[in-house]
Amino acid sequence: MTDGVSSDERTGLDGLLKLQAWLSPAFPIGAFGYSHGLEAAIADGLLRRGTDCEAWIATLLQHGSGWNDVVLLAAAYRADASELVEVAELGLAMSGSAERRREAMDLGSAFADASVPWGDGASIAATYPIAVGALACREGLPLAAVCAAFAHAFAANLLSVCVRLVPLGQREAVAILRRLEPVLEAVARRAAASTLDDLGSAAILSEIQAMRHETLETRLFRT
User: Fold this and answer.
1) How far apart are CA 132 and CA 141, in angstroms?
2) What pLDDT, on a 0 to 100 scale, did the predictor assign at position 17?
3) CB proximity list for 174: less than 8 A, separation 6 or greater
4) CB-based burial of residue 130 (10 Å sphere; 0-12 exposed, 13-18 middle, 19+ buried)?
5) What 8-state DSSP symbol labels residue 46?
6) How far apart are CA 65 and CA 95, in angstroms?
């Protein structure tokens, strides 16, 4: 320790800064342009108030696409080069609709391009959570922290959609994010200890709305 900071603390701070950069709304992957089916759900009147938005996002994190994304991230984190190809193929196959597939691949490609300054050498086509998991492993970040940060970014991006469309006030959105903290922590801990056998979704309505979005006449979001 030469400056009052131990080597472990310095490593932890370095990892925290990486996660803040990669999963920041300012990171140029264009996540703000994807609603993950929320635009269709709001158009159909399924989300009318803050409590609706909170329940919808919590369900996705615990039982739907949000959960599967974090499990796939953890699998990519643990995978060697040959296994990563198989995980990437599985991640693509998990997309339940054309727009979900487009969202996952567009964000994954954009993340790979934007993360080049951190030495991202990914040579396979990968969905967003797999691209994040693979890079986090190469950078030596703790898996549980990566899972928590990714789940938090997932929730925050969906809340930003609700702010624009429900409409939902920003203060209420922040309060929802605060109430979701126990869910985010629990999901991150479960996902960090998960295997691919833990993949599975029961959020059928979300998948239907993702498909419904393809036929909306007026759309602000790509998905």
Assistant:
1) 11
2) 95
3) none
4) buried
5) S
6) 9
Is there a contact between 165 and 42 (Cβ–Cβ < 8 Å)?
A: yes
Supply 222's token pair.
């790509």
H or E, element range at 114: helix 98-114
pTM: 0.94
CA separation, residue 63 to residues 95, 198, 206 (Å): 15, 11, 11
Question: How many other C-beta atoms lie within 10 A of the C-beta of residue 217?
Answer: 5
User: Minimal CA–CA distance to 198: which of 72, 92, 113?
Assistant: 72
**Residue 98 clears pLDDT 90, i.e. is over it:** yes
At residue 118's C-alpha, the angle toward residues 184 and 194, to 5°, is 35
- Euclidean distance between CA atoms 16 and 12, whole angstroms: 6
Task: Specify whether the CB–CB gap between 21 and 167 falls below 8 A.
Answer: no
Cβ(198)–Cβ(84) under 8 Å? no
Sign for the CA dihedral angle at 29, 31, 37, 40 comes to negative
